[in-house]
Design goal:
- It is a single chain.
- By secondary structure, this protein is an alpha+beta fold.
- The protein folds into 3 domains: about 1-50, no CATH class; about 55-150, 2-Layer Sandwich (Beta-Lactamase); about 215-440, Heat Shock Protein 90.
- About 50% of the residues lie in helices and about 20% in strands.
- It contains 10 helices and 14 strands.
- A 5-stranded antiparallel β-sheet has the order 4-3-7-6-5.
- Strand 5 (about 90-95) and strand 6 (about 100-105) form a beta hairpin.
- The longest helix is centred in the middle third of the chain and has 60 residues, at about 185-245.
- Mean pLDDT is about 80; it is low at about 425-430.
- GO terms for molecular function: kinase activity.
- It is found in: Cell membrane.
- Keywords: ATP-binding, Cell membrane, Kinase, Membrane, Nucleotide-binding, Phosphoprotein, Transferase, Transmembrane, Transmembrane helix, Two-component regulatory system.
- It comes from Paenibacillus hexagrammi.
């Protein structure tokens, strides 16, 4: 009233809220003018009608002097005392026989208090509804979480249980079980490792079976070779006694060598023999061959005493010497020479049987070494002695040991025998065999 403001509509003082601010000079702080803005009260009404506090709750505004800025038509507003709103932003008061929850918040920009009034019954109902909704949402969440956990747990447990069943079957001896998985996750990788492990076990069992079979066959062949020597040993002992009666020294020497050959070869059925006895066996064989090939060959033994105190598989040198005579010395022109030597190298004993005979052609030498290394099977027409010695050593001690053949065609051949150092006659071979089986 009296502001001289012209508008297209006429508003009374109760229809507007006037906001007034002085305009001052920034340097002198002199008031230069006043800015006045009129806000229609129905704007507040529209805002607060959209902010309903339950069914009968309402909102009103007080200024810094406690005067009402805006209020809906409601008689409860005039029953709310200013002192109720001093200390606690939320109080419960009884008005006209009903309890009301009064909430307020300060609006610092204009020093207003925005006050909400909710009947206590509505307030409790809101709390109860909220508690009920929270409980329902919690139950639904727990049910969904349990179903999801059960589903995901089953996706993990099911293949694990399947893998456990397969393991029990493999444990009972069925090595044909395989784990089939469509996924490539950790369970799939575990199943792949299980399949690989079973396949390796199956291969190792077959390998051990074949090696044991070969070993038994080799032992049977050696046993069969010993049957006749045992009979001949007894017979030759009688012949030697008779030759002594007739003073036939040459015959006595040959028969004595042959008797030693058979006696040492039998070795009371033991597989291991001292190197001293094995060398003596080889010397007896050479004495017999010297009488047969008189003037055709000579031999030399270079075995240190420190080597002779160890043990070795029996009948391993004689086949190598026989091979040198029949395939080396016998095939050359003129007189030949065989040299047998030995040395200790790290944890092995190494024998070398050298001859200056006819030698071996390169392609045949390569074929022999491939067979000795296990890279190729021995043909039926191939010689028995050399490969039998190699198989016996490798089946007992492993593929790191055995024979190696070196030759230059027309100049001679060298066969190297690599054997582990064995200190005792019976215990060490058992230890080596067990260690070899674990290595496989």
């Amino acid at each position: 009233m009296g502001r001289n403001v012209t508008t297209s509509q006429t508003y009374s003082s109760n229809d507007v809220l006037s906001l007034v601010r002085a305009w001052r000079d920034p340097d002198t702080k002199e008031v230069l003018g006043v800015i006045l803005i009129d806000l229609r009260m129905d704007m507040f009404k529209k805002i607060f009608e959209n902010l309903q506090l339950e069914k009968s709750g309402f909102i009103y505004i007080l200024d810094k002097n406690g005067e009402i800025v805006y209020s809906p038509v409601n008689s409860i507003v005039y029953r709310i005392r200013q002192e109720w709103l001093q200390d606690n932003p939320s109080v419960t008061k009884e008005i006209r026989g009903h309890d009301y929850r009064i909430l307020y918040n300060d609006y610092e920009a204009y020093h207003w208090k925005i006050i909400g009034v909710i009947p206590n019954d509505d307030y409790r109902r809101v709390v109860m509804d909220l508690r009920t909704y929270t409980f329902i949402v919690t139950i639904i969440t727990l049910v969904l979480a349990s179903l999801a956990a059960t589903y995901f747990t089953e996706t993990i447990i099911r293949p694990v249980r399947k893998l456990m069943r397969l393991m029990r079957r493999v444990q009972s001896g069925d090595l044909n079980q395989r784990f089939v998985s469509e996924t490539k996750d950790e369970i799939g990788q575990l199943g792949h490792s299980f399949n690989h492990m079973v396949e390796e076990i199956k291969n190792l069992i077959n390998l051990v079976y074949m090696e044991q079979k070969k070993k038994r066959e080799a032992e049977l062949q050696v046993l069969q070779a010993q049957i006749k020597p045992h009979f001949l040993y007894n017979t030759l002992d009688t012949i030697q006694w008779m030759a002594q009666e007739y003073k036939a020294d040459d015959i006595i020497e040959i028969i004595g060598a042959l008797t030693n050959l058979f006696r040492i070869g039998l070795n009371k059925g033991y597989e291991l023999i001292s190197i001293r006895e094995e060398v003596k066996h080889a010397e007896s064989y050479l004495i017999i061959q010297m009488s047969r090939y008189m003037g055709k060959m000579e031999f030399e033994m270079d075995i240190p005493e420190e080597v002779k105190r160890y043990h070795i598989l029996k009948l391993v040198l004689q086949p190598l010497i026989e091979n040198a005579i029949y395939h080396g010395i016998k095939a050359r022109l003129g007189k030949g020479r065989i040299r047998i030597s030995a040395l200790l190298h790290q944890d092995t004993v190494r024998f070398r049987v050298e001859d200056d005979g006819a030698g071996i052609k390169p392609e045949r030498l390569e074929e022999i070494n491939r067979v000795l290394r296990g890279e190729e099977k021995r043909s039926e027409e191939a010689g028995f002695g050399l490969f039998n010695v190699n198989e016996r050593i490798q089946l007992t001690y492993g593929i790191a040991y055995g024979l190696r053949v070196y030759s230059e065609y027309g100049k001679g051949t060298t066969v190297e025998l690599i054997h582990p150092i064995v200190h005792t006659k019976h215990e060490e071979v058992t230890n080596h065999v067990e260690a070899n089986d674990r290595g496989r």
